[in-house]
């Protein structure tokens, strides 16, 4: 049989830190890969579904706000689609990450499993879907006659920012869900609310000035705006608002991480 | 030798919460966060000290709720100790919840990769050892089928194989011998002993004292979260077994002698032991208490369970006049589960062939608490069994024997 394999210890030569980094990287890769495969296997449309779903949403918005109620926004398809992609990434990840501790019980019970990687896996999987949908967005930009400028190259920066923000929120929600199992239901309502408070199908300009301050507390507002600035308007993003979002993330991320770590341990103990 | 696991004065405290601690956000808001504070705490483990060297196996025994699984969680760094010191030198692997981490919709191959990487093997190493893992699990023909089509046994075999091929320096095992059929179990055991010989430190948590005694170098006996005994496994196992006797003694009520269904008196503390929470009210040897060697024998045990105990273990043995046991089985050993009980009922055990030599024997029966902590009722030297064999055997067995005289073959001319 296979007794000789146990004699080779390839890990001893590398240092502990290197080993850990490689371990986390392998883990991220294989678990994201697993999630993608699962999605692919569960529906006949597979990955295509992640493209069809925002396209259908887009169709509804175009029908409602171009045909029924006329909203005057140029390049409306590109406008709505870019907003939808960013929003869907945010929403799906928060929703999935909330249940992630409970649904990954078997993994968490593995000795030494870094539980805090779980929300990162969810958000990474979402990012891949976002990136897969980008070609379609560029087709819309092309159809709408948008002239791309070098500012488009800032796209990865915005994605990184949204990534950090989503992971930070995910940590809090996943932790909350351990204490209160109805978090996911409550979140559904909250996200719906937040969807309308984000300029997906309308412009920020339509918000009355007296509410603008409160409105812009939603961190998705500057993010969605910036995506459009670099993609559609071809101008630099509003740096100040992005710096504020980055600052928020830098505070929320370690705090969320801490709360999450504490709660994920408690979860195992409660079983 | 260098110690792989060092545990000093380890303690784990759990909080107990109010029974109506809010479970939903709504309730929490309504109750004003008042009831979220723990009302009470208790120590699941306290003052635990032990050491496991590389190449050593430690057995952890104890009844349910003694803290065994909590200890395993702490060793696996899944839970953190409240106090004390814990040092683990080396990568930790585990044989717990075998197959629970598998995803039914993925193929065996995909699951192997995920599990092995989670267990800490680099991707290229998994690829290199993949064939060995599959071959060990005896699943070569099925590895590209989704795991949901596997039987529980197949899943456990695959999970076991992945875990032992990941080269852990420390292995945590929870009752591993229940994997698959007997042949595969002995293969697993061999593999574990080989890992031990190569310097893997192993912690085995088990209900089965004899298993611990047989396999482990040292044993740790946990009782109510503290160490009751720690030392050589045969000594600790002996203490554990005698504790069961003491527990039984303490629970034994005064009871006048009764006649057994065979007419032999049952005297407490002489040929009858137990707390009598469940009583054996009758034992029948069928078809008769006199039998021909090689025939079938059924033993029916009537019991009365007035306290409605949910489940228990039954034991059965056949012993000679000198007390020597020729057969000694438990329902746990036969089918690895406890037997559900009614308020009164009958339990029947059948032996397909009793191949004993001619002689007088006793059938002995017992009912034990589901954690084996004490006996409910146990009758010995009360039910005689006479066996007649077709031929004289001076030993214990008299199985069917045939003989044949073989001459050297005549050579062809």
Secondary structure: elements and pairs:
The complex is a heterodimer of chains A (271) and B (413).
Chain A: H1 16-42, H2 48-68, H3 76-98, H4 100-103, H5 105-108, H6 117-143, H7 155-179, H8 183-196, H9 209-215, H10 220-233, H11 239-270
Chain B: E1 3-16, H1 25-31, E2 40-53, E3 57-61, H2 68-75, E4 83-88, E5 92-95, H3 108-118, H4 123-137, H5 152-164, E6 170-174, H6 182-197, E7 201-205, H7 209-215, E8 218-223, E9 226-232, H8 233-251, E10 258-259, E11 265-266, E12 272-273, E13 279-286, E14 290-292, E15 297-304, E16 311-320, E17 325-330, H9 331-335, E18 339-340, E19 344-351, E20 359-368, E21 375-388
Parallel strand pairs in B: 3-7, 3-8, 5-6, 6-7, 14-21
Antiparallel strand pairs in B: 1-2, 1-4, 8-9, 10-11, 12-21, 13-15, 15-19, 16-17, 16-18, 16-20, 20-21
Helix pairs in contact in B: 3-4, 3-5, 4-5, 7-8
Description:
The complex is a heterodimer of chains A (271) and B (413). Chain A is built from 11 helices and no strands. Chain A is mainly alpha-helical and 271 residues long. In chain A, α3 packs antiparallel against α8 (183-196). The longest helix of chain A is centred in the last third of the chain and has 32 residues, at 239-270. Chain A is globular and about 55 Å long. Chain B has 413 residues and is of the alpha+beta class. Chain B folds into 2 domains: 3-240, Rossmann fold; 255-388, abc- transporter (atp binding component) like domain (Coagulation Factor XIII, Chain A, domain 1, Distorted Sandwich). In chain B, 24% of the residues lie in helices and 34% in strands. Chain B has 9 helices and 21 strands. Chain B has helices at residues 25-31, 68-75, 108-118, 123-137, 152-164, 182-197, 209-215, 233-251, 331-335; strands at 3-16, 40-53, 57-61, 83-88, 92-95, 170-174, 201-205, 218-223, 226-232, 258-259, 265-266, 272-273, 279-286, 290-292, 297-304, 311-320, 325-330, 339-340, 344-351, 359-368, 375-388. In chain B, the strands form 5 sheets. In chain B, strands 12, 14, 16, 17, 18, 20 and 21 form a 7-stranded mixed beta sheet that branches. Chain B has a 6-stranded mixed beta sheet with strand order 5-6-7-3-8-9, with helices on both faces. In chain B, strands 2-1-4 form a 3-stranded antiparallel beta sheet, covered by helices on one side. The longest helix of chain B is centred in the middle third of the chain and has 19 residues, at 233-251. Chain B is globular and about 70 Å long. The interface between A and B is large, with 41 and 49 residues.
């Amino acid at each position: 049989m296979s007794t000789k394999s146990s004699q080779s210890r390839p890990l001893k030569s590398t240092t502990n830190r290197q080993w850990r980094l490689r371990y986390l990287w392998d883990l991220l890769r294989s678990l994201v890969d697993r999630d993608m495969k699962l999605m692919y296997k569960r529906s006949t449309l597979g990955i295509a579904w992640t493209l069809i779903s925002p396209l259908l949403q887009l169709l509804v918005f175009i029908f409602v706000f171009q045909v029924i109620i006329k909203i005057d926004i140029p390049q409306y398809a590109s406008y709505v689609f870019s907003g939808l992609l960013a929003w869907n990434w945010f929403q799906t990840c928060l929703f999935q990450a909330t249940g992630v501790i409970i649904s990954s019980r078997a993994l968490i019970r593995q000795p030494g499993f870094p539980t805090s990687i779980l929300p990162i896996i969810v958000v990474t999987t979402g990012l891949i879907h976002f990136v897969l949908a980008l070609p379609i967005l560029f087709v819309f930009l092309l159809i709408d006659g948008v002239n791309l400028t070098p500012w488009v190259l800032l796209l990865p920066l915005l994605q990184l920012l949204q990534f950090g923000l989503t992971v930070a929120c995910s940590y809090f929600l996943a932790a909350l869900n351990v204490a209160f199992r109805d978090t996911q239901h409550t979140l559904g309502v909250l996200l719906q609310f937040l969807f309308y408070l984000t300029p997906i199908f309308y412009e920020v300009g339509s918000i009355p000035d007296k509410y603008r301050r409160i409105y812009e507390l939603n961190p998705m507002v500057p993010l969605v705006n910036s995506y459009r600035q670099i993609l559609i308007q071809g101008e630099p993003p509003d740096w100040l608002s992005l710096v504020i979002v980055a600052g928020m993330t830098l505070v929320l991320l370690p705090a969320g991480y801490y709360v999450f770590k504490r709660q994920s341990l408690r979860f195992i103990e409660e079983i | 030798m260098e110690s792989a696991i060092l545990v000093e004065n380890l303690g784990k405290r759990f909080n107990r919460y109010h029974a109506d601690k809010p479970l939903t956000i709504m309730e929490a808001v309504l109750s004003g966060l008042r009831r979220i504070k723990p009302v009470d705490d208790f120590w699941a483990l306290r003052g635990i000290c032990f050491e496991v060297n590389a190449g050593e196996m430690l057995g952890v025994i104890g009844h349910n709720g003694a803290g065994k699984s909590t200890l395993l969680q702490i060793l696996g760094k899944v839970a953190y100790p409240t106090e004390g010191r814990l040092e683990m030198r080396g990568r930790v692997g585990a044989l717990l919840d075998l197959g629970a981490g598998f995803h039914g919709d993925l193929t065996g191959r995909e699951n192997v990769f995920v599990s092995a990487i989670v267990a800490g093997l680099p991707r290229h190493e998994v690829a290199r050892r993949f064939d060995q893992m599959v071959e060990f699990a005896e699943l070569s023909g099925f590895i590209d089928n989704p795991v949901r089509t596997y039987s529980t046994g197949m899943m456990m075999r695959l999970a076991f194989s992945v875990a032992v091929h990941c080269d852990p320096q420390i292995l945590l095992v929870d009752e591993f011998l229940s994997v698959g059929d007997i042949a595969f179990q002995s293969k697993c055991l061999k593999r574990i002993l080989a890992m031990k010989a190569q310097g893997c430190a192993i912690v085995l948590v088990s209900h089965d004292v004899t298993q611990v005694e047989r396999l482990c170098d040292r044993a740790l006996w946990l009782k109510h979260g503290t160490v009751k005994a720690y030392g050589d496994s045969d000594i600790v196992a002996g203490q554990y077994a005698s504790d069961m006797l003491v527990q039984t003694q303490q629970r034994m009520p005064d009871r006048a002698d009764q006649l057994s269904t065979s007419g032999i008196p049952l005297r407490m503390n002489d040929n009858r032991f137990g707390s009598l929470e469940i009583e054996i009210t009758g034992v029948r040897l069928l078809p008769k208490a006199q039998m021909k060697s090689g025939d079938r024998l059924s033993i029916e045990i009537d019991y009365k369970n007035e306290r409605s105990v949910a489940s228990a273990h039954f034991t059965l043995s056949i012993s000679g006049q000198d007390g020597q046991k020729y057969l000694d089985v438990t329902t746990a050993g036969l089918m690895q589960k406890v037997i559900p009980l009614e308020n009164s009922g009958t339990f029947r055990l059948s032996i397909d062939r009793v191949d004993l030599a001619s002689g007088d024997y006793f059938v002995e029966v017992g009912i034990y608490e589901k954690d084996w902590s004490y006996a409910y009722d146990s009758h010995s030297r009360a039910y005689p069994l006479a066996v007649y064999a077709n031929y004289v055997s001076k030993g214990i067995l008299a199985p069917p024997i045939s003989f044949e005289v073989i001459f050297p073959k005549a050579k062809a001319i």
